[in-house]
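Aim 2 progress update. The chain analyzed this quarter is reproduced below.
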Amino acid sequence: MKEIDGRIRWRKEISGRMRLLAVVLRSVISIAFLGIQGVMAAQMGVPTPLSPAERQKAEAERTTTGPVANYPQLVDITKSTGIIFDHKSSPDAKFIAESMSGGVALIDYDGDGWPDIYFTNAQSVDMALRGVKSRSALFHNNHDGTFSDVTDKAGVGYPCWAMGAVVGDYNNDGRPDLLVTCLNGVVLYRNNGDGTFTDVTKASGLDADSGWATGAAFGEYDNDGRTDLFVSHYVDFHLDNLPKFGLGKGCKYLGLDVQCGPRGLKGLPDSLYHNNGDGTFTDVSKQAGVDDTERRYGLTSIWSHFNNDGKLDLFVTNDGEANYLYQDDNAGKFEDVALLAGVAANEDGVEQANMGIAVGDYLHSGRMSLAISHFDVEYTALYTNEGGMNFTDNSIASGIARGTQGYVGWGDAFVDFANNGWQDFFQVNGHVYPQVDTTHTATHYLEPKLLFLNQHDGKFLNISRRVGPALQIPQVSRGLAVGDLFNDGRMEAVVENLVGEPMILRPEGGPMNHWVTFQLEGVLSLNARVRVIAGDLVQLGEVTSGGSYLSQNDLRLHFGLGSHESVDQAEVLWPDGKKETLRHLAADRFYVVREGEGIVVSKLPEHTANLP
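Predicted structure tokens:
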């Protein structure tokens, strides 16, 4: 047995070395390529040309018309919800801080079982210098298809120059708390359980975080039963020392003067905060090995069990630099294995403008794969999880690359709008530079959204123009959160735009497929998993904090079941390693599962009269 184990370790070591050699060789080629293309991409992104065949396929998909069989239309219902919100922005966006905000969070803050919505808001540099604040907003779900602004009562309107928001229960009281990332740190709102929040940033010790915070994620990494917090940081940006617009190599795009950064600006280190169990946090970034000594430009982060070993791993996107994939060594320390895992850069070894993260088991393999949105000269990367902390870049093979090149992608998600049991891929877009509209090219500041149909074989089909006109409305989108807003078994998409009002998309029509939703209540529920078996469908879901682009999805796990009228078996794997098995569950219901007790609530959907 020892001899066999030795051979396995030897093979793994050789495989790792071969992969490293291949990446190094690809990187040498890429450096030469970058030298040629540097003038074009001095600002963000690396030109990654597709083959003529791929471009032809892209054009064929783009020009295909007509509805998709057995698939709903996505309809803009924003007006009917009663939501009125305006994200502040600068029309010129002369500074990078004016282009990166716009995260949105779904949070059932009052525990009534209906997702509410929190929109973050940001200032412009001019507003900040004049002391003018911008108002973030919390909208309460009225259970009838509409929402009411409860921001003032809740006390969450003016946290900071806000970037994004995530949800987690940091004090284990069973109520979701809200963390907002800011241009100058973070703000932690404790849920008081009476419809209000208290700012506990200083009391928790998180006021020590003063850098430009972007993507945060709650997760319990050290098995002590308390929810910890990771915060990624972007660039060292100060209002009293602003970069000069258009001056310098990192301030040009297609020959235009544009905002400077991130290249050419200093990066900031990331932070891991250990939960002390008394309402406070301690910065353990350095001892845990996630302090980002290279000071890469961190954006979105997410915790997940990427190698299914029961220990949390951490993924961080870095803008224009190699991503981090931190593997837990079971002793409170992490090792960055992104390069060996194949997710640090693309298949040619080129580091990309990594922004949003979608995590999901789109192949029904029982493993969580990754999709990462990028800049317009690149394309969205799809990394398929092969197991054993090995990923394959299937961006081109899957069809995702050809449909996303030419767009600046931000929030993204694997989501089953049709309830057919297979997760499709949805991405929102919007350029960084308003100045591109003066070039009279195919590049525009406002961009459409993209939807890719899962073909059940590892490939996706671009159906963005075939699911109604709403996706084609050009906007400058940033955040994306998905969830069943109206508790009727359909997944909506909430899009926060950098410029102006948000958009809420609802699937209408299509087949009346079955579904099931689980709300998990445990000592800890973040990163709990559910494996659902219904006939030939075997799906995996995980409760996650953060992800998308600086946003928060519904914490409930939703599974489409297609024509299956029941669930044969649902396995719940709790973060502490305990497992519960539920059998013979009726479809089209919401189940609340409490650790150690099983199903404590089973509810039918509540059809709302105001909805189609």
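The first helix runs from residue 2 to 37. The first strand starts at residue 73 and ends at 76. These observations will guide the mutagenesis experiments scheduled for the next reporting period.
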